[in-house]
C-alpha cells in the first residue's frame, strides 16, 4: 500500500508500472479530494509510464464541484498525463454508471487511452496486454 485515507487507497499491482486505486463508498470532502489530486501529482512527477486501474465498484458519484475540479486538474496537467499515462482502466460494476461514463467520454474525450470494464478479471487481461508495450 502506498497511500490510504478514507476516500481511496493506492497500491502497485503486480508491477511498478500498474497503479491500482480503489475508491471507498464515502463521498469525499474537498480536503480528501485535494489529497487525491496531490497524490496524482506525486505519481506523475515520477516521470514513469503507468497503467492506472481505478476500482470504482464502491464509489459514489462525485459532486459537480469536484468533477469540475478534476476536469480542471486534467486540463492543467494534460501534457504530463499524455506522456506518462500509458493506459487507464476503470472497473465499474454498474452497467448504468459504465454507460454514463462512456457518454461523458464521448463529449469530453480524455487525453489518455482507456477501457471501462465490469470486473478485475477483465482488467487483468488488459493489464497483461498493455504491460507488453511499456
Task: Describe the secondary-structure layout.
Elements: E1 3-4, E2 8-12, E3 18-23, H1 30-44, E4 50-55, H2 64-76, H3 78-84, E5 85-91, H4 95-107, E6 114-117, H5 120-131
Parallel strand pairs: 3-4, 4-5, 5-6
Antiparallel strand pairs: 1-2, 2-3
Fraction of residues in H or I helices? 40-55%
* SSE class: alpha/beta
Distance between the termini: 23 Å
The name CATH uses for the topology is Transcription Regulator spoIIAA
Overall shape: it is globular
CATH structural architecture: 2-Layer Sandwich
The order of strands across the largest sheet is 1-2-3-4-5-6
Number of domains: 1
Mean pLDDT: 95
Brief write-up:
With 134 residues, the protein is of the alpha/beta class.
Question: What does this entry look like structurally?
Answer:
This protein is an alpha/beta fold. It has a single domain, classed as 2-Layer Sandwich (Transcription Regulator spoIIAA), CATH 3.30.750. The chain contains five helices and six strands, in the order E-E-E-H-E-H-H-E-H-E-H. Strands 1-2-3-4-5-6 form a six-stranded mixed sheet, with helices on both faces. Strand 3, helix 1 and strand 4 form a beta-alpha-beta unit. The longest helix is centred in the N-terminal third of the chain and has 15 residues. The protein is globular, with a radius of gyration of 14 Å. The model has no long low-confidence stretch (mean pLDDT 95).
Amino acid at each position: 500500500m502506498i497511500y490510504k485515507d478514507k476516500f481511496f487507497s493506492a497500491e502497485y499491482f503486480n508491477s511498478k508500472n500498474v497503479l491500482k486505486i480503489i475508491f471507498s463508498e464515502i463521498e469525499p470532502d474537498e480536503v480528501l479530494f485535494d489529497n487525491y489530486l496531490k497524490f496524482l501529482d506525486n505519481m506523475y512527477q515520477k516521470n514513469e509510464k503507468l497503467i492506472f486501474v481505478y476500482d470504482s465498484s464502491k464509489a459514489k458519484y462525485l459532486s459537480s464541484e469536484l468533477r469540475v475540479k478534476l476536469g480542471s486538474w486534467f486540463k492543467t496537467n494534460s501534457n504530463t498525463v499524455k506522456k506518462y499515462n500509458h493506459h487507464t482502466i476503470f472497473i465499474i460494476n454498474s452497467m448504468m454508471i459504465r454507460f454514463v461514463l462512456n457518454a461523458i467520454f464521448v463529449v469530453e474525450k480524455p487525453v489518455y487511452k482507456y477501457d471501462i470494464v465490469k470486473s478485475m478479471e477483465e482488467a487483468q487481461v488488459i493489464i497483461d496486454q498493455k504491460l507488453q508495450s511499456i
